[in-house]
Amino acid sequence: MASSETRAQVQDYYGTQLQTSQDLLTNACCTDDVPLAHRRILAQLESEVLEKYYGCGVCIPDAIEGITVLDLGSGSGRDAYLLSKLVGENGHVIGVDMTEEQLDVARRHIDAHTVTFGYSKPNVEFRHGYIEDLQSANIPDNSVDLVVSNCVLNLSTDKDATYREIFRVLKPGGELFIADVFADRRVPETLRQDPILYGECLSGAMYTEDFRRLLLRLGINDYRVLSSRRLTINNAEIEEKVGNIGFYSLTVRAFKLDIEDKCEDHGQVATYLGTIPGQPNKFVLDDHHTFETGRPMLVCGNTAAMVADTRYGSYFKVLGDTSQHFGLFDRGTAPVVASVDALPGGCC
Ligand SMILES: C[S@@+](CC[C@H](N)C(=O)[O-])C[C@H]1O[C@@H](n2cnc3c(N)ncnc32)[C@H](O)[C@@H]1O
Question: Could you tell me the CA-to-CA distances from 290 to 33, 60, 263 in Å, in that order?
């Protein structure tokens, strides 16, 4: 099937067929753990925005006050409005989506949320565009601090172009933080052609190893997994169709940094200062790096760069640099992902 046809089917699915999240046929687009701070903000959002939420995870990292965030496939705007509150009046949120019906819902609640949040002017906007070509939404090179996306990238008909665009628009040191559906093997073409399976965020899902290879091709040599949840699907007919393919909702972060494909030991030590708003006790970088406040941790060069050469830098004290080398970091390698069950996160 031509990619334009798949895209039109996705637009129809989200623009016409689904009216609310109750209409979804599987539980692929479902989120379970919502942090308390987010729940408090969600309680302030307009009901139409919440009813048309089709995300599969939490894709909002810490320390985002005052930054520029791009939400790819912003849908009815649920995450964009959450972000609007969290970045504060001086931050800026841009939602991009290709489906006019979704954009209409998101846009009609801008004024109400501006009033609810007590802002003098909106800090959020919704642009029509394609995630494979962010020029279509006028997003310049190196202009965004954070790209988020919730259950959308699997729907892209050209993953290479989408990820290329993400790392084009991110500023150096900028962060990609996504919740998305991945598969533990390549999904056969016959299933990819099924509009329901594709629309439900299943058959467009990338095999995790192909995702790793794609990022490597783009020079993104290390990424980190924060959480992994196997999807149960909860629809007998669809379960039978997908057979033994395991689908997972993963939360993943990657940075636009010049880092290595393996974790190298330079004797660097990082200490979290406890200063990120709302995180006085710890900072979770990924599923195997939790920094306790004030506790120095020996880290590989990649982890050191992630907490020093990004917006997290002001919340960490990092000792040492990469001028000395002590061999491979003793806890392992960069993302070699045999299966999603064994996802090691990026490294170490
Ligand atoms: C599963 S919904 C998720 C929406 C939103 N992130 C949320 O959490 O509610 C997928 C959204 O991505 C949009 N989308 C899918 N493919 C796209 C593409 N190639 N370019 C732009 N938007 C796309 C759809 O229009 C739809 O609004």
Answer: 18, 17, 17
49 with 262: CB under 8 angstroms?
A: no
| Whole-number pLDDT of residue 1 | 61
Report yes or no on 301 lying in a domain.
yes
Alpha helices by DSSP H, listed for 109-184, are 110-116, 159-169
CB 24 within 8 A of CB 200: yes
pTM to 2 decimal places: 0.93
Query: Is residue 348 in some structural domain?
Result: no
Residue finishing a domain among 255, 276, 297: 255
Residue whose CA is at the smallest distance from ligand 1 atom 4: 75
- Specify the higher pLDDT residue, 3 or 272: 272
Say which CATH number the domain at 142 has. 3.40.50.150
180-225 per-position pLDDT tens digit: 999 999 999 999 999 999 999 999 999 999 999 999 999 999 999 9
In a domain, 260, yes or no: no
Is the domain of 147 the same as that of 246? yes
Q: Do 76 and 191 fall within a single domain?
A: yes
Query: Which pLDDT score, from 0 to 100, does residue 331 have?
Result: 59
Ligand 1 and 283: CB distance under 6 A: no
> Is the shortest distance between the CB of 53 and ligand 1 below 6 Å?
yes
Residue 52 placed within a domain = yes
What pLDDT score does 198 carry? Answer: 95
**Last residue within a domain, chosen from 203, 226, 255:** 255
Which amino acid residue places its CA nearest to atom 3 of ligand 1? 54
Question: Is the domain of 296 the same as that of 148?
Answer: no
Which residue segment(s) compose the domain that 195 sits in? 3-255
10 CB near ligand 1 (under 6 Å): yes
98: Cβ below 6 Å to ligand 1?
yes
| Ligand 1 pocket mutation, candidates 3, 78, 155, criterion most atoms within 8 A of CB | 155
204-239: buried (b, 16+ CB within 10 Å) or exposed (e) per residue? Answer: bbbbbbebbebbeebebbbbbbbbbbebebebeebe
Shared domain check, 225 and 283: no
How many independent structural domains does the chain possess? 2
pLDDT in tens, 109-146: 999 999 999 999 999 999 999 999 999 999 999 999 99
Query: How many angstroms separate the alpha carbon of residue 75 from the centre of ligand 1?
Result: 5
Q: What is the structure's pLDDT at 32? A: 64
- Report the residue among 14, 17, 60, 206 best suited for mutation to probe ligand 1: largest number of ligand atoms under 8 A from its CB: 14
Find the 275 Cα to ligand 1 centroid distance in Å. Answer: 34
11 alpha carbon – ligand 1 mean position (Å): 8
Question: Can you give the pLDDT at residue 146?
Answer: 98
- In the three-class reduction of DSSP (H, G, I as helix; E, B as strand; rest coil), residue 291 is classed as strand
